[in-house]
Amino acid sequence: MAKTVRIGVLALQGAFIEHVHALNSLCGTEHISNVIEVRTKEDLASVDALVIPGGESTTMALVAERSGLLDDLRKFVQTKPTWGTCAGLILLSKNVVHTKKGGQKLLNVLPVTVHRNQFGRQVDSFTINLASPCLQTVSEGANDPFEYVFIRAPAIASIDDPEVEPLVVLPPGYGQTEPSESGILVAVKYRNLLGTSFHPELTADNRWHRYFVKMAMGGTDQS
């Protein structure tokens, strides 16, 4: 019998339902047994892979701590396939700059430095179509541009471990609050972790969700 994975979406706060819908749309074609919303330790223990959605990272961490889920999340992300989008990227990271006063709790596993709200306020949200060679592992149409949606998004300011694989770089001149001639890194992969600044769940294009499912199955090695 073919291997399948049970995927959870952390549902404490933020845009979790859009990820649930996107993953459910793949259940008939990808190796997904089912998709659940994760709110408790028991939910987390029942899944093979996890999506941490966009939202408000400080609030998300606070709710996880108050519900007794934070320590279990920290253990889970050490070894299990986990994808953090936007706020989820912030939570996964080891270092964050421009945090709120008093800082914030992190899961502390992804060796990158993240610039919180790199792309400004809600009014500064934008979309851009980019070719994404990393998606060729999941689609024959991988050369078709993907619509990247940035909403109060963070950015990856630096890679702090040579094992971190850069996946997508935003060209110079798009939305950043601090100019960069080389562009800004907005997606990385590291061992069992995927971190993205953007919101793929807000598009009808499911290639990033398919990429994560394949990663959860152990099949996105780019080498």
List the helices and strands and how they pair.
Blueprint (H helix, E strand, L loop, with lengths): L4 E6 L5 H9 L7 E7 L2 H5 L3 E4 L4 H10 L3 H10 L2 E4 L1 H6 E5 L12 E6 L10 E5 L15 E5 L4 E5 L5 E6 L13 E7 L2 E4 L10 H10 L7
Parallel strand pairs: 1-2, 1-3, 3-4, 4-12, 5-6
Antiparallel strand pairs: 6-9, 7-8, 10-11, 11-12
Structure characteristics:
3-stranded mixed beta sheet; 7-stranded mixed beta sheet; 223 residues; alpha/beta; globular; single chain
Summarize the structure in words.
This protein is of the alpha/beta class and 223 residues long. Helix content is 22%, strand content 29%. The protein contains six helices and twelve strands. The strands form three sheets. It has a seven-stranded mixed beta sheet. It has a three-stranded mixed beta sheet with strand order 5-6-9. A two-stranded antiparallel sheet has the order 7-8. The mean pLDDT is 88.
